[in-house]
């Protein structure tokens, strides 16, 4: 299967570099380029895409707003968004994950990292670097992220989870992979995957990235603990 990729960035030179890299892969193709968020959403709706590489900061409609427009559209439920950041730590990353992005990637990442991120997102997984993302989320939640007390993320939402699902969510919030969680809880990776999928369904999370955010916002996992 060929992975259809949309490039959304206001820097023409950067888009060109990404296009050359993506199109050089036999299992990928660039289906469009956008210089702002609104244009990105239009292209996704018109041509479709499996993965959108979305710059957070663009003139006009920025990447954060565009991500919300994509993830809130039922017709685009299968589209995955990977946010591109200039710096490893960006104050908008948590908001991006809350908006439905599958993860983030620094613009200075190695070519192999970029291609791996696209494949991971296309496969329905989340987070290029779980540990790095978990650390970033912890840092911003510790500082008090606007909206972190929203009713949508009230701790009572966790009441829908079984005890084992809570245990798995704690491990997900810690940035651990399914194999690592399986070893820690002494169960099979398939069992862990089942618990993760059930937790996502019960909590209304699009993917693993949002589970990490929910784990912190509900207080199930605390920054620095």
Characterization of this structure:
A five-stranded parallel sheet has the order 2-1-3-4-5, sandwiched between helices. The chain has helices at residues 12-23, 37-47, 63-71, 93-99, 111-122, 130-143, 163-173, 178-185, 189-203, 208-217, and strands at 3-8, 28-34, 51-55, 80-85, 103-106. The chain has ten helices and five strands; from the N terminus they run βαβαβαβαβαααααα. It has 225 residues and is of the alpha/beta class. It has two domains: 3-127, Rossmann fold; 149-218, Winged helix-like DNA-binding domain superfamily/Winged helix DNA-binding domain (Arc Repressor Mutant, subunit A, Orthogonal Bundle). 41% of the residues are buried. β1 (3-8), α1 and β2 form a beta-alpha-beta unit. α6 packs parallel to α10. It starts with a strand and ends in an 8-residue tail after the last helix. The modification 4-aspartylphosphate is found at residue 55. Keywords: DNA-binding, Phosphoprotein, Transcription, Transcription regulation. One of its GO terms (biological process) is regulation of DNA-templated transcription. Residues 154-219 form the HTH luxR-type domain. Residues 4-122 form the Response regulatory domain.
């Amino acid at each position: 299967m060929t992975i259809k990729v949309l490039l959304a960035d206001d820097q023409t030179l950067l888009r060109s570099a990404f296009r050359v890299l993506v199109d050089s892969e036999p299992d990928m193709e660039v289906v469009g380029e956008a210089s702002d968020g609104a244009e990105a959403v239009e292209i996704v709706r018109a041509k479709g895409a499996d993965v959108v590489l979305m710059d957070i900061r663009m003139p006009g409609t920025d990447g954060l707003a565009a991500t919300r427009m994509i993830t809130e559209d039922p017709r685009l439920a299968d589209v995955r968004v990977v946010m591109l950041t200039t710096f490893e730590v960006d104050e908008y990353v948590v908001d991006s994950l809350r908006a439905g992005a599958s993860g983030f990637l620094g613009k200075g990442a190695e070519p192999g990292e970029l291609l791996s991120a696209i494949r991971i997102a296309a496969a329905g997984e989340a987070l290029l670097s779980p540990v790095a993302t978990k650390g970033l989320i912890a840092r911003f939640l510790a500082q008090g992220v606007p909206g972190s007390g929203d009713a949508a993320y009230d701790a009572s939402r966790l009441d829908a989870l079984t005890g084992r699902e809570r245990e798995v969510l704690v491990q997900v919030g810690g940035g651990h992979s399914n194999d690592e969680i399986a070893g820690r809880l002494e169960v099979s990776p398939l069992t862990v995957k089942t618990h993760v999928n059930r937790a996502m369904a019960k909590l209304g999370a699009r993917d693993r990235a949002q589970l990490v955010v929910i784990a912190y916002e509900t207080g199930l996992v605390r920054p620095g603990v």
